[in-house]
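Re: that chain you flagged

S.,

Sorry for the slow reply, it's been a week of failed gels. I finally had a moment to sit down with the sequence you sent. For the record, here it is as I used it:
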Amino acid sequence: MTIWKNYYIAQTVDDALKALADAPGDARLIAGGTDLLLDLQQGRHPPLDTLVDITHIPEMRLVEERHGLLFIGAGLALNKVVASPLVQQHTPALFDAASLIGGPQVRNTATLGGNVSHALPAADGTIGLLALGAEAEVASLESRRRIPLQDLFRGPGKSSLDPHRDLLVGFYLPLRKPGQASAFRRVMRPQGVAIAILNMAVWLERSEETISDVRISIGPAGPTPMRAHKTEDQLRGQRPDSQTMTRALEALLLETHFRTSPHRATAEYRRKMAGVLLQDTFEVAWRRAFLESVNGE
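Prediction finished late last night. Pasting the structure tokens below so you have them in one place:
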């Protein structure tokens, strides 16, 4: 069975958007294709008239400092994300997350934009970006706009992007400052199935022994990738002692909505592991913030 008719290799963002708009039938953008091609081959997506390849667009494969922010192109393969010194320096949670997605062959092909645009509640790259305060740059033929990452998600596998007219160009993230750090951790099934039972990212700013600021993201804890705002409120301005961490876990369990999944774990198991994951991820970020503060002086 033919699952597409035409394959177009775009050279610029505008070129890709025009090809998408001018396709005679249903068209989709493709980068690594590790999700879309499987969906087409396994019948979860109807056959397409045109695939528009965006992996040759230079702008979408950049990692660079831009106007006081870190820009990461959505078309950058995950192995390139992991290898970037700028990613390692400024966004260690994203480095942690991208290092764990699939295996080496998948990371050589799959892109950061694909991981995000598939809109899964526990996508590792998405969870990392969310805690880091990322904004997404989205292009259409009419304009370009930057939006908070959270605004991209409408439900499990449902993105706010219009697949017929929108292109996810890349992500803007704050540069790391002394005393700031981040970390990503996840709990996997022991059988090695490449889906997370639970994953979490923590970004924090440390002022001596006080948590000046913090962002926490977790998945799957609802229909979309989630920021744990009430948990953050319990930590912000506090010392990370046992009482503070206990209150934070209580808040986390109140604001999350774990469900039982035959492919992942029971809701009860996830609730038990949430505390382990919170403690572990926070401690790694806290330790990194101390080292960053010392090295930054």
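What I noticed first: The longest strand covers residues 196-207.

Talk soon,
D.
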